[in-house]
């Protein structure tokens, strides 16, 4: 839907804000209705057919908790679930605004705003609303957020929904997930659906940067700043100015590097090596790591103040073994790609191949599945792929075997310790110990022999 055809309801107890919005929108939209009292929301929604609501976060100047805005947001979504809501917030209430996204808001604007920014936000939200309405059946069928992201499992639908919510904002995003789950695809999708989509998207594998290269690559340098600095060079932050900076493997950088990164994010400016001149930056930051958030919370490994800075909203990407409903969908997707690439357009899977794919745990996740399908199509002598044609990575298989062996050892240790505690509890009485453990005396004796107790 174009802005010109939209009906918009604005709720704010500041009459100056209402006047400014009404003057701005009266020539830009089909209809704009303003209201100072939020208690009128049910009546206005029942009376009018609005496409979008602009809703203030606070209606009681003596409280300013934002809970009033959250309450009325929930009421709007109850009364008219199809209506998009944009929250109006002060700069100090960004955390509340992010909470509003989780409660169903489409976006938020910070006051005072630039008129062009507000109009751009309204246009984007209306466009996304129309896209969701028109593509809803296709979305349920194909599960695409972008051409490269495939999934129709419940966990992936939740991720797609979250991307729709957060992409139009400038909130910093932390993407968590194992290697091979597609964290970079999610970062790309967020950028492509953001208001910065026509600006640069710069990806940096910060985990691969040495201490000596870290500052130069990210912040830039001046000619002569160090031995190999033969010319002035901007860093990745400046290259991403106006757009999105994606820092991959953020969990692998040192505490010293974290301190330098935090300074830049706090000050919103970089200083190239060899100069004292700070350069302001305007970026949307997305970070990713395969390290669980619980491990990042260890301050011996990662600064908590940096976690809070990069983690306004987090997205956890599930491993492929947790989204088995998507395996065949992904397999067919990769089969189409590689069948065309290797000129074997009529390739198809036999039931034995599909069954084998669904039973395998895929420790290498989507990346391993992709390489498995590509290898099978390259090696196929016919147009039919049998179960025997699917060969899984020996690297991942050895990792799986080792992890299974570790798990068996852990279980054995637990069983041994439990048996010893119960026997001590009953002062060596095997009959009583066996009864509490739910074992026969013979079975308990076998375990005593096994663990050399």
From TrEMBL:
* UniProt keyword annotation of Nucleotide-binding present: yes
InterPro entries documented for this protein: AAA+_ATPase (IPR003593), AAA_lid_NorR (IPR058031), CheY-like_superfamily (IPR011006), Homeodomain-like_sf (IPR009057), HTH_Fis (IPR002197), P-loop_NTPase (IPR027417), Sig_transdc_resp-reg_receiver (IPR001789), Sigma_54_int (IPR002078)
Q: Give UniProt keywords alphabetically.
A: ATP-binding, Nucleotide-binding, Phosphoprotein, Transcription, Transcription regulation
Q: Indicate where the modification 4-aspartylphosphate is found in the sequence.
A: 56
Quote the protein name from its UniProt record.
Answer: Sigma-54-dependent Fis family transcriptional regulator
Q: Which residues form the Response regulatory domain?
A: 7-126
Q: What is the source species? A: Sediminibacterium roseum
Q: Which CDD domains match?
A: AAA
| SMART domains the UniProt entry points to | AAA, REC
């Amino acid at each position: 839907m174009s802005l010109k055809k939209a009906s918009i309801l604005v709720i704010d107890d500041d009459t100056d804000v209402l006047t400014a919005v009404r003057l701005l929108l009266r020539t830009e939209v089909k209809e704009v209705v303003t209201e100072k009292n939020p208690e009128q929301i049910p009546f206005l929604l029942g009376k009018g057919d609005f496409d979008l609501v602009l809703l203030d976060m606070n209606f009681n100047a003596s409280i300013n908790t934002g809970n009033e805005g959250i309450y009325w947001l929930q009421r709007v979504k109850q009364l008219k679930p199809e209506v998009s809501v944009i929250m109006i917030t002060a700069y100090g209430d960004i955390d509340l605004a992010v909470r509003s996204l989780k409660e169903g808001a489409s976006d938020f604007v910070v006051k005072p705003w630039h008129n062009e920014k507000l109009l751009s936000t309204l246009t984007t939200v209306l466009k996304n609303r129309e896209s969701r309405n028109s593509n809803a059946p296709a979305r349920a069928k194909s599960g695409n957020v972008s051409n490269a992201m495939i999934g129709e499992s419940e966990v992936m639908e939740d991720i797609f929904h979250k991307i729709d919510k957060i992409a139009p904002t400038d909130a910093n995003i932390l993407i968590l997930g194992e290697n091979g789950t597609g964290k970079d695809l999610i970062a790309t999708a967020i950028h492509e659906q953001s208001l910065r989509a026509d600006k640069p998207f710069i990806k940096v594998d910060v985990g691969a940067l040495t201490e000596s290269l870290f500052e130069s690559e990210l912040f830039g340098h001046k000619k002569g700043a160090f031995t190999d600095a033969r010319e002035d060079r901007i860093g990745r932050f400046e290259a991403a100015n106006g757009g999105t900076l994606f820092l991959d493997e953020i969990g692998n950088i040192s505490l010293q590097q974290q301190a330098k990164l935090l300074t830049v994010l706090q000050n919103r400016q970089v200083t190239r090596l060899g100069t004292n001149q700070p350069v302001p930056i305007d970026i949307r930051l997305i970070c990713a790591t395969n390290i669980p958030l619980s491990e990042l919370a260890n301050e011996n490994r990662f600064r908590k103040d940096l976690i809070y800075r990069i983690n306004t909203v987090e997205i956890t990407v599930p491993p492929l073994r947790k989204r088995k409903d998507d395996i065949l969908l992904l397999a067919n997707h990769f089969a189409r790609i590689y069948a065309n690439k290797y000129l074997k357009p009529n390739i198809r899977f036999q039931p034995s191949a599909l069954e084998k794919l669904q039973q395998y745990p895929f420790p290498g996740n989507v990346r391993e599945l992709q390489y498995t399908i590509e290898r099978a199509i390259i090696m196929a002598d016919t147009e039919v792929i049998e179960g025997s044609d699917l060969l899984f990575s020996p690297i991942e298989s050895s990792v799986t075997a080792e992890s299974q062996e570790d798990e068996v050892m852990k279980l054995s240790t637990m069983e041994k310790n439990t048996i010893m505690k119960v026997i001590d509890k009953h002062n060596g009485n095997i009959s009583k110990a066996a009864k509490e453990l739910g074992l026969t005396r013979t079975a308990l004796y076998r375990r005593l022999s096994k663990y050399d107790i």
